[in-house]
Structures are given as structure tokens and as C-alpha cells.
Amino acid sequence: MHHATTLEEDRARLPFPRRSLARSGFDAADPLFNADLRDAATYEQAREVVTSHASRLWTEATRTPTSGPVDDRPLYWARLTLSARLRSWNPSFDLDPRDHAELLRLWERTSRGITDLEFPPGDRWVRVVVTGFDPFQLDDDLECSNPSGAAALDLHGWTFPVGERTAVVRSALFPVRWDDFAHGLVEDALATRHGVVDAVLTLSRGRPERFDLEVFNGAWRGGGLDNVGVGRTGPVPLPEGPGPQWTRSSLPVERMVGAAPGPFTAVANTEVTEVAADEDEAVVRPLGPSEGSRARSGGGGDYLSNEIAYRNTVLRDRTGAGARSGHVHLPRTARPDEHAPTLEQLRHLVAAAVTE
To answer: 233 forms bridges with which residues in the sheet?
Structure first.
């Protein structure tokens, strides 16, 4: 029962991804995974194999590098190499297609840190979730790294003082794929966290030379192609049915803007594109949406950055938990050695987001 691999998984076989895996040592993951999968004689054993290999990948990727910059690409290409292996696997036992799909879902969530968003108990902790994205637009630049992915790996496990308490950061990485979002991946990852965490900052790659703190998020998908070559246009499909046209960041953006020394400007971005209540034409509004308008683009655009920001802030409002939630677009850089100033400055922004 061979399953065709995805366009994204097929890219992992190209020369650059293979070099990236070899250079990083992540190329050892595939033969080990293959051997353990081959030995799995039941669905339960297969689950154990998937869980242990996926969490090992995540643990390796979030380890602080002893030398050189944080690189999100080996994790990305290794995850795809192994998910292709799992997708095309012919088990020695009868595997229900639904169980096979569940193994792939488990693989994704575990290797992305989503199942590892756990925090220590007790009042002395300030709990912070930071999310980043996979590399994307790989047909234009197969070697690109995503600064938000590098940032998520860099910040995972970071602790810093906040008054008398200690902040602890846990990270997760999200795919650049519309349909994973439509199937509720963000809600699966974050819904139960909104009751226990103090802040959820979603990050993505933005414009050159600047940080944009996105104030408004819109309920609209603009159709740009994702990592599997799919475009989706229309209202953001939420699991519980339609949400509001607009949501708003609850990060202390003004304080953050003033608290981020470094080479890049930080801007509280209030611009949106809307269709006003009795109009048909989309217009840009620099200071946020008008009453009763329909969203066409949030501060962070109409792609998956805007969508994760929108879903995160809808979760905040629906759970009523009050976690400080919002989106930060990082300066656009393409290689790990270019991200360093961004990562440094971002720590100030994250710290300012949770100071009392």
C-alpha cells in the first residue's frame, strides 16, 4: 500500500538538503528510523518508534550549538526525509489507513515540539510559548533558512528573571501548509496551553531590516502558494465555526518597541486592508479596521503568519484565559549566519512582552 510522498518530502532528496543533513550529522536519523520501523510488528510498537525518533530529532535540534549559528534547516530536511520514509512504509502487519495517518500526525507534532509544550508547576514561573515557521518559498531559494524557525529553536528552554519570578520559554515550529491549519493544528497545539501560560508569541519572517509587531489580525486567506504548492483563498476556517473579522494583539507593543535595543527598528504595525461595511472595494487603513468591515489583510498580511496570529488570538478570546498574545514579524534574513542580530534583539522583545 505505497503512499505517494508529498512535493515537500520530494524536495528533501535534492542535493542541497542531503548536504545539509550530512554536514549537521542529522543524516544518521534516517537509517536508524528505517531499521526500527522495519522491526515494528504492531501498531503500538510503530507508535513507540515514531515517538522516540521524533522527540530525539526535536531534542537534537533545540540543543544549543557549540559552534556556529542556530540552523533550522537540518531539522526541517530530516523531518521530511523521515516522514517520507513513514508515508511510504510497508509494514509487516495489517495497518489500518487511519492508524497510518495517525502515525504521520504523531510524527509531525512530536518532531515540531508541539507535544513538548510542557511547563514546570508552581507560581514562581512565567510561562511563555514562542512559535516559528519552517523555511518556505523553497522553489526560489532551496537553501533558505527561516529566522523565525531559528528563533524558536534558539529560545526553547531559555529562562530569564521577571521581577521575583522566572520566565521559562517553550517553543514549537509550524508547517507552511494551509491544510494543516484548516485541520486544526494550531488549536490542537495551543488550546489547552491558553489556560496555563502567560504569553504566546507567534513569530514569522517579515520585511527587511525591521521588526513588525502586528496589532491587528484578519480572518482572510489570500491564496499564496504553500510548501506543497497549494493556495487557499477565503475566510479562515476555524474548528468551532466562523470567528470575528478582526482580532487584536494583547502584547504590550508600545513597551516592546521601546525596549528593543539593536540594529533593527521595531514598529507597532496597525495597518490593515479591509472592505468597509457598505463597500465592495478593498482599501488600506493605516490605523486599523473600521467598524463592521470585512478583513482582506491583517497587519501581517493574508498568508499563514496572519493566520497563526489570528487563530492564536481567537483562542485567547474564546478561552478567556488572558494570555498575552500577538505576532512578531522578524527582519527578513535567509541564512543562519545572518540571523544573529535578530535573535539577540528578539530576546529583549520577548522579555519586554512579559515584564510586569
So the answer is: 222
